[in-house]
Amino acid sequence: MNKGGLFIRKPFLYQFMFVNYGETIWSIENRYVGWSNIPLTKNGVNFAYDISCKLKQYNLYPNNIFTSGLQRSIDTSLIIKQKLKNIDLPIHSDWTLNDRHYGTFVGAKKEDIETFDNERIIKELKIYENTPPIMIELNVVEYPIYENNYFRQIELVGESYKNVYDRIIPYYSANILPIIMQNKLPLIIGSNDLLKVFIKHVRCLSDEDFNKLDLVDNQIYLITLDNDLKYIRTDQIDI
């Protein structure tokens, strides 16, 4: 991955962008969010404005925005659209781009979970095929959840990264990739968990290499593919 330097649109290559939504109440409290519909804080709203400024600074104007069904991502996309002053910018919202669901961890503070068995918990959460362990003894805060039939199947067990991959990559292939192949520049808004899965897919990472993947927050990720859709590079822009 590359940081710094010039970020120039490549007319004969395929590119797309990914960015995180900003701060929420639970990120301040260091809680697992999952599919809870936690809103942005004022800082989170300002972060969306900062994203827009960076996009304009580097002349990276998205043709489409893709976001989850979670309000924090939708609000981020609406702010970016407003700031870019593009009333015709399409925003596509779909639950398949929702954050990773952490099962019984949702609403619990991360430090509380880690006091049970720090090394095992951290290891299990990062491994590609592992779902979070069920821990009903946790002290959690409840908040309205985004629910659908899929969620009700995974409510307690949560999702592994493989589960996330299995729901977002078909959506990417059917809805985002065709836009990329038109030499347009879509922007995907979501969590780092989603970004890790996208990177696994475009870079064809093994599960072992995926487990070692460590990403940085507060970045715009510009991913470039060649004409055969093979990965070339990832550029990172500080927000």
Describe the structure.
The protein is of the alpha/beta class. It has a single domain, classed as Phosphoglycerate mutase-like (Rossmann fold). Helix content is 39%, strand content 15%. It is built from 8 helices and 7 strands, in the order ββααβαβαααβααββ. It has a 7-stranded mixed β-sheet with strand order 1-7-6-2-5-3-4, with helices on both faces. The longest helix has 20 residues, at 161-180. The model has no long low-confidence stretch (mean pLDDT 91).
Task: List the main descriptive attributes of the protein structure presented here.
seven-stranded mixed β-sheet; 239 residues; alpha/beta; Rossmann fold
How many structural domains in the coordinates?
Answer: 1
CATH architecture annotation name: 3-Layer(aba) Sandwich
Q: Which class best fits the helix and strand makeup?
A: alpha/beta
Proportion of beta-strand residues: 15-25%
Radius of gyration: 18 Å
Q: Please identify the top-level CATH class.
A: Alpha Beta
The number of strands is 7
So, the CATH homologous superfamily? Phosphoglycerate mutase-like
**Helix segment tally:** 8
Q: Which SSEs are present, and which pair or pack?
A:
Blueprint: E1 2-3, E2 14-20, H1 25-28, H2 42-57, E3 64-67, H3 71-84, E4 91-93, H4 110-126, H5 149-154, H6 161-180, E5 186-190, H7 192-203, H8 207-211, E6 219-225, E7 231-238
Parallel strand pairs: 1-7, 2-5, 3-4, 3-5
Antiparallel strand pairs: 2-6, 6-7
Helix pairs in contact: 2-3, 6-7
